[in-house]
Specification:
The chain is an alpha+beta fold and 281 residues long. It has nine helices and eleven strands. The chain has helices spanning 17-21, 25-36, 54-69, 73-76, 105-110, 117-121, 123-148, 234-239, 272-280, and strands spanning 14-16, 40-44, 91-94, 99-104, 165-170, 191-196, 201-204, 217-219, 227-232, 249-251, 262-268. Helix 2 crosses helix 7 and helix 3 (54-69) packs across helix 7. The chain starts with 13 loop residues before the first strand and ends with a helix. Residues 183-270 form the Isopenicillin N synthase-like Fe(2+) 2OG dioxygenase domain.
Length: 281
């Protein structure tokens, strides 16, 4: 399969952050429809003055990620957070096919991020990028709350402990498509932002039919510089009373060939107290 045969980005609308800031009724309606249908859209940071430089920041953080993950495993293992529950992703983690480092938003706010090496050297850059994502996610949540008349923000109050964070991911492609493991899942948080520059993210198009048929999946083209892919996650689907869709998605690749792939993923997650209340309910 060649890239020209891949589904194009017209399957997934682009929402302009500047227009959301201006509270444009048409942009708000477009956002709501995107979250109700496939649950996936592009967010364009470029027209909003405060985030105009995010494309350059993204490229810089890819380079920082490369420097960090190319270190020997024994160096990265020093960043393993043994003092946290298995459900928390802070610090360094490694799996069969990827390595990750997650920076806690709470710790960033408190000035207590536990960073090392290239990450520590670039902490101001990481913090600014992280803050842009956080503010944008809360604006999206606010616009959806207004549209649905449901108190979504009451589970995401400023200053309340949460597992919200920015995750750097090293996820190389495989020699052949046949080697790619099945990773389909939905995200457990509220909103997920995914920055990437190589083809690899697929989403299930529920309206087309069951997940076990290849033709019912679509690659989401890498976002243009200054843009990000956003998708609804499980908490938001639940809080919206299933009006919004948390899509099943997975990591794959469109063709054979092994290469480095770095992904920057921001997860807006509900405050810890809200998660406990959901379990009790």
């Amino acid at each position: 399969m060649t890239r020209t045969e891949l589904p194009q980005s017209d399957l997934f609308p682009t929402i302009d952050l500047e227009r959301l800031v201006a509270n444009s009724s048409s942009e708000n309606a477009k956002l709501l429809e995107a979250c109700k249908s496939n649950g996936v859209f592009y967010l364009d940071f470029r027209n909003y003055a405060a985030t105009r430089d995010i494309g350059r920041q993204t490229e810089a953080i890819y380079a920082v990620s490369d420097r960090y993950f190319e270190q020997p495993i024994e160096v990265k293992m020093k960043d393993l957070r043994k003092d946290q529950p298995a459900s928390s992703d802070r610090g360094f983690k490694f799996y069969d096919f990827e390595e990750t480092f997650e920076i806690s938003h709470d710790e960033m706010q408190q000035g207590s991020s536990r960073l090392s090496g290239p990450l520590a050297e670039n902490e101001p850059l990481l913090n600014e990028f992280h803050s842009h994502c956080h503010k944008a996610s809360h604006l999206i949540l606010s616009r959806l709350e207004e549209a649905l008349n449901i108190p979504l923000r009451s589970s995401h109050r400023p200053g309340q402990p949460s597992e919200t964070g920015l995750k750097l991911v090293a996820e190389p492609s495989f020699p052949t498509i046949a080697d790619v493991p099945e990773t389909k899942h939905t995200d457990s948080g509220t909103l997920t932002f995914v920055f990437y520059d190589k083809w690899g993210l697929q989403t299930h198009l529920a309206e087309k039919g069951p997940e076990d048929r290849t033709e019912n999946w679509a690659f989401i083209p890498p976002p243009a510089p200054g843009c990000v892919v956003v998708h609804v996650a499980n908490t938001l689907q639940r809080l919206s009373k299933n009006q919004l869709r948390s899509p099943v998605h997975r990591t794959s690749q469109p063709e054979d060939g092994q290469e480095k792939r770095y992904v920057l993923t921001y997860f807006l997650r509900p405050e810890d107290a809200a998660k406990t209340q959901a379990v009790v309910a």
